[in-house]
Amino acid sequence: MNLAAKDLRFSLFRFILTALGVGMLLGATMGMIGLYRGIVYEALLVINDIGADLWVVEGGRGGPFAETSAVSATLDRRVEGVPGVLEVRRFIQYNQQYSFNGRTLRLAVTGIDYPKDKGSWIPLVAGRYFYSSRYEAIADQSTGLQMGDVIRLGRDDYTIVGLSVGQVDMAGDGMFFVTIPDAQAINRVLPSEAILLNRVASSMNRTGYGQAGSIGAVIVEARPGIDPQSIKDRIERWGDVSVLTKKDQQSLLLDGRLWRLRIQILAFTAMTLLVSGSVVALTIYTMTLEKIPHIALLKLIGARDRTIVGMIVQQASFIAAAGFVLAIVLSVTVYPHFPRTVLLEVGDLAAIGAILFVITLIASWFAIRRALVVKAQEVLS
Questions:
Q1: Is pLDDT at 44 greater than 70 in this prediction?
Q2: 3-state secondary structure 273-320
Q3: DSSP 146-199
Q4: Mean pLDDT on 3-18
């Protein structure tokens, strides 16, 4: 006979409420970790997928993702001549707000260097890649734009020829892919008052830096067998630009812009796990106090201490297991509908489950200690 299961059956309502509370707390913990994973995934999306070995950016800058960067739109011609370079592409990305059919859209406008790059690395769910160098766009589903929509940005109209999925920047704005000339044209559009001021303050674009028509970076692909570091060393001798590897870009984002977010989420996660453990400890301890006469009776009929300890540990484990299952059901049901990506990884879920189990064992120690000091004579009290 399983004493733990039988005892929980007598306190079924309390068991359900406790498991529900633990499950909600664990669900929140999983959500926070998943949100962090999602932000990291979105932040590194372009860096991981665009196929760049090196990023040539403005001198002294860590752009174009961690901070702003503006280089000459003709820089790619200089980089093309460096030995060991297979291909170069221009890149630009900036965020702006627009109106479409009476609603406000925030777009991460991303320039594609057509025809070198037709956007084949972008995951499409409908439509096609670029066939023309002007006035075509690929929009992410999160923008709400549909195939065939025509949106006016600046002074030109752009037709949506493709729909992507999961392409958002670190701020959560859906990406809006256009060719480099279109991205520059959209970026150059300024109010008439700004144009007048720019005649005094030379060539300022909407992003507030660099010369009009500039780009954010030049993407470099190295020839097979060529060490990208040798290309980087050669380009950095020019003095007017900085060169970042893929690893540099990832480090700038994860250890720079996302560092505080990472610490904060870890702190919240530790707090919710401790609260979950406290809930389990309080419940098990209270249940133990209520059945002290029963424990005394067990001792009176000769039950060993390990039988009582096993009953308490099993009860705590049942609560933790039920809460963990409930948290997973909650996470996979609710989080896919969140506006930002919540990325649940099996490794994270397993780690949370293991930590919860350890906390539960530690929490049940208080109840075990109380149960072990119960004397058989107390059954008469």
A1: yes
A2: HHHHHHHHHHHHHHHHHHCHHHHHHHHHCCCCHHHHHHHHHHHHHHHH
A3: -TT-EEEETTEEEEEEEEESS-B-TT-PEEEEEEHHHHHHHHH---HHHHHHHT
A4: 72
What are the structure tokens assigned to 130, written together?
Answer: 């670029």
Burial grade of 145 (CB within 10 A; 0-12, 13-18, 19 or more) = buried
**Dist. CA 184–CA 182, nearest whole Å:** 5
Categorize the per-residue pLDDT at 328 as very low, low, confident or very high, splitting at 50, 70 and 90: very high
Q: Which residue has the tokens 């133990």?
A: 288
Alpha helices in the chain (DSSP H): 3-10, 12-43, 45-49, 75-80, 180-188, 192-198, 228-236, 246-252, 259-290, 292-300, 305-334, 346-372
Give the dihedral of Cα atoms 98, 101, 104, 106; nearest 10 deg.
Answer: -50
CB 169 within 8 A of CB 95: yes
Distance between CA 376 and CA 297 in Å, rounded? 6
Question: Mind listing the pLDDT tens digit for each residue in 159-189?
Answer: 999 999 988 888 888 999 999 999 988 887 6
- State residue 370 phi and psi, 5-degree precision: -70, -40
Structure tokens at 212: 């009009």
Q: Note the helical H segments in 50-171.
A: 75-80
Given pLDDT bands bounded at 50, 70 and 90, which one contains residue 360? confident
Lowest-confidence pick of 73-77, 93-97, 211-215, 277-281: 211-215
b/e per residue 266-303 (b: at least 16 CB within 10 A): eeebeebbeebbebbbebbbebbeebbebbbbbbeeee
